[in-house]
Design goal:
Layout lengths: L9 E3 L11 E7 L10 E4 L5 E13 L2 E11 L2 H15 L6 E7 H10 L1 E2 L3 H4 L3 E2 L6 H8 L6 E7 L6 E7 L2 E7 L2 E2 L3 E6 L11
Parallel strand pairs: 1-3
Antiparallel strand pairs: 2-5, 3-4, 4-5, 6-9, 7-12, 8-11, 9-13, 10-11
């Protein structure tokens, strides 16, 4: 099973309280993959707040740690900062969550319980089952599940999923795709959802 995604274009850290354009700063992060050194990079907080556009000046790997120096080329502020932050959250925040999420119906879930696995037509047509990060549940529920009887959210532990999970781009973000029938024991929690009085989901 694999749900890793290579990301060497973003440095996430809360170590830099004040940043000055043109100055250089040391950085360190775990891993064995160098940050890209031939393109502009982004510096964000651990909450994905966009801080700056940076360039790597130097870097080296020691004991599975990457150490180096970066230069601040541009600082994000106000509306631009918020727009980029929203993009980063939509694209990447789900990678940190130990769970992925599926919208389902009670009928589909009961059938999956009996079979021990959840399958969908998309396995044949596309090769995978669509799942979603938590941040996209509300949008997808309102788009696809308003007419479903007894709609549910299935919370799935990524570590328990037997088929490979690939995070792939779709609809302006990265989404987890499950490349095989979902073993039902990976579903650790089920939540019922219902429409609000105005006919919409608010999840």
């Amino acid at each position: 099973m694999g749900f890793k995604i290579a990301n060497n274009s973003i440095l996430r850290s809360d170590d830099y309280v004040e940043l000055v354009r043109g100055k250089t700063y040391p950085f360190e992060r775990k891993g064995h993959q160098h940050l890209a050194d031939n393109v502009p990079l982004w510096l964000t907080g651990t909450d994905w707040t966009a801080r700056a556009e940076i360039s790597v000046v130097s870097q080296s790997i020691e004991n599975n740690n990457i150490k180096g120096i970066f230069r601040v080329d541009y600082l994000y502020q106000k509306d631009e900062q918020q727009i980029l932050t929203n993009i980063f959250i939509r694209m990447y925040a789900g990678l940190d969550d130990p769970a992925i999420y599926l919208l389902s119906s009670n009928a589909e879930y009961q059938q999956a319980l009996s079979a021990g696995k959840l399958t969908r037509d998309s396995l044949t047509s596309e090769g995978f089952i669509h799942a979603t990060p938590k941040s996209q549940l509300n949008r997808l529920a309102n788009k696809y599940y308003k007419d479903k009887e007894q709609p549910l959210i299935l919370i799935v532990d990524k570590e328990l999923v037997i088929p490979e999970i690939k995070w792939e781009p779709a609809s302006g973000g990265l989404y987890p795709h499950i490349y095989g029938p979902l073993n039902i024991n990976a579903v650790t929690r089920v939540e019922k959802i219902s429409l609000n009085e105005d006919g919409n989901f608010y999840l």
